[in-house]
Write a structure and sequence with these properties.
Layout: H1 30-42, H2 46-59, H3 67-72, E1 84-85, E2 88-89, H4 91-101, H5 111-117, H6 128-146, H7 155-162, H8 165-178, H9 184-200, H10 223-235, H11 249-261, H12 272-278, H13 282-297, H14 301-305, E3 309-313, E4 318-323, E5 326-336, E6 346-354, E7 358-359, H15 362-375, H16 379-382, E8 385-388, E9 391-394, E10 405-408, E11 417-418, E12 432-434, E13 438-440, H17 443-450, H18 459-465, E14 472-485, E15 489-491, E16 497-499, H19 506-509
Family: Belongs to the YkuD family.
GO molecular function: carboxypeptidase activity; transferase activity
InterPro entries: LD-transpeptidase_YkuD-like, LD_TPept_cat_dom, Transpep_catalytic_dom
Length: 519
């Protein structure tokens, strides 16, 4: 799916470090650094362990009082680090960081330094050893705060319970339930890790299609098909690469998976635009992932705290409605054209209008209708329009450009959401047709869902209000936040990455290296 994408989230972060930064080892070479790190964790030489730990707690003095608990975590470990897989923070380190951030009243010493570990755009000089011990210190603080009922257990014993894969699955399941958009950051970070590895490999090669290009369909035979098969295998849409140049059932399933997660029309046709998308360099995908991670970090904390809101993501052309912290409804949308872009902003839905009039904007009257009205005196009547106080408006009805319901949220750009009679437009892959407003495919269903808390609005009353005869407006007693966002990559509820069209070319305008402050 596309923006459902937004709401199933787990926690993976990546960062590269130098191996050891203690001043007493500064003159040694790389091999000696690695050796000393190993000695620190695995050696029976207590003097070495004590020396290294003293250096750390001398540097991070506010953590010194937790020294015995922190060092107990390393006592019987056979691996060099707790929170790293090679040079990248592992899933458990990321889970710890996210859980600690969400623990009320937890004061975290050296918060800035720890945040840097999870900021892919941040340059820091924290060694891998220091980073691991900082996270171990964070673990002790988190355990003290959240596991008071287990205080009789040693921190080492508690760590064994924490470092259990079910912990990751439980955290992921919770995130999928509550739709926490912030956690999408960590999903993207996990994908970033995979794409960086793919970038370093020699497996990614451009697909060289036959010319002139002809759409590829099931049962076709072509050298291009074999290349597509390899690409989909590398991307995880196929479990194996048979190297076959025949468009078989296996490839059909892979193509469908690829298309759905990337927001393309779900069919088996491989058009030239799909080959071009597959040929986007991995380095560009890496930049896109980093940019969207930063966009997520800039999101207002209010979104995380709200248990009801509407979220529209322009690049994936999708809307979700969250109610009581759960996803209640998803719908396809179409948005403003590049010349009349839908504004990216937050608002509050305060009214639902049934069988609305459409007051035609003066810009449309001037640029599109004036000549038609002058050429045909009956034009307004034929279009169910009328002139009122010098303004052109379209009367309620099934052919009204706003459809049978609209959702109002005051804003300076006069943007709102509404139904549309042009349902066939939702079949297009690139859906930028409006003058800026958001056209919702399941507008009626959205209205029904939003009015569940209003007993007077029965299904029969809603149906009558949407007959298209008389405009009626209902003011919500509780305003519903709406967030219009611009994410060109997101991870769906199945853990699959989707890359969407940069319809307003905002990616090109942005700099992925710019660090944003964590809220």
């Amino acid at each position: 799916m596309k923006m459902k994408t937004l709401y199933s989230l787990s926690i993976i972060l990546a960062l590269s470090f130098s191996v050891v930064s203690f001043s007493k080892y500064e003159s040694t070479d790389t091999k000696e650094h690695k050796s000393n790190t190993s000695i620190f964790y695995n050696s029976d030489n207590d003097a070495v362990k004590e020396s290294v730990s003293n250096e750390f707690f001398k540097k991070y003095t506010d953590l010194k009082k937790y020294k015995s608990e922190v060092m107990s975590l390393y006592k019987n470990r056979t691996l060099g680090t707790i929170w790293f897989d090679e040079d990248e923070i592992n899933e458990f380190g990321s889970v710890l960081y996210e859980k600690a951030k969400k623990t009320n009243d937890l004061v975290i010493p050296y918060q800035k330094e720890i945040d840097q570990l999870f900021d892919s755009s941040s340059e820091n000089n924290i060694s891998k050893t220091d980073a691991d011990m900082l996270l171990s210190s964070l673990y002790v603080l988190y355990a003290k705060k959240s596991n008071s009922d287990k205080k009789k257990l040693s921190y080492d014993a508690m760590l064994k319970d924490f470092l259990n894969y079910s912990t990751i699955e439980e955290a992921t399941a919770k995130v999928e339930d509550d739709g926490n958009l912030y956690d999408q950051y960590y999903k993207l970070q996990g994908v970033l890790k995979q794409y960086k590895k793919l970038e370093k490999s020699s497996k990614w090669k451009p697909i060289v299609a036959e010319t002139p290009y002809k759409d590829l369909r099931p049962d076709a035979v072509s050298p291009t098909i074999a290349q597509v098969r390899t690409r989909l295998y590398l991307l995880g849409d196929l479990k194996q690469d048979s190297k076959s140049d025949f468009y078989d059932r296996e490839l059909m399933d892979g193509v469908m998976k690829y298309k759905v997660r990337n927001g393309f029309k779900p069919n088996y046709i491989l058009a030239e635009e799909h080959i071009k998308e597959m040929n986007i360099p991995v380095s560009d995908k890496v930049k896109t992932l980093m940019l969207n991670m930063e966009r997520i970090r800039a999101i207002s904390p209010e979104l995380v705290n709200n248990d009801e809101y509407v979220l529209v993501n322009v690049p994936s052309y999708e809307l979700i409605y969250v109610k009581n912290g759960k996803i209640e409804l998803t719908s396809s949308v179409f948005v403003g054209s590049p010349l009349t872009k839908t504004t990216i902003f937050n608002g509050q839905i305060d009214r639902i209008v049934f069988s609305p009039y459409w007051t035609v904007p003066q810009s449309i009257v001037q640029n599109e209708l004036r000549s038609k009205i002058a050429a045909d005196p009956n034009y307004l009547a034929e279009k169910n329009m009328e002139m009122v106080n010098g303004q052109v408006r379209q009367k309620p009805g099934p052919d009204n450009s706003l459809g049978l319901v609209k959702f109002m949220f005051p804003n300076s750009d006069d943007i709102y959401m509404h139904d549309t009679p042009s349902k066939t437009l939702f079949d297009f892959e690139k859906r930028t047709f409006s003058h800026g407003c958001i056209n919702v495919k399941m507008a009626k269903e959205l209205a029904v869902a939003m009015l569940k808390d209003y007993p007077e609005w029965t299904q029969a009353k809603i149906d009558k209000a949407m007959e298209g005869k008389v405009e009626s407006s209902f003011k919500l007693s509780k305003k519903v936040p709406i967030y219009i966002t611009y994410f060109t990559s997101l991870v769906n509820e199945n853990g699959q990455i989707g890359f969407f069209q940069d319809v307003y070319e905002k990616d090109a305008e942005s700099a992925p290296q710019t660090a944003l402050t964590v809220n």
